[in-house]
Amino acid sequence: MLSRVAETVHWLSRYVERAENVARFIDVNYKLTLGETKSLR
Whole-prediction pTM value? Predict the structure, then answer.
């Protein structure tokens, strides 16, 4: 049972990491679309 919980926590952390990367990608593209390049320099 403990190994199943550990595996679930591992995959949950992987999915959270992927969600953070997607959110960062969307944020950068949103700012570039609006022409807010000064905040990216």
Answer: 0.66
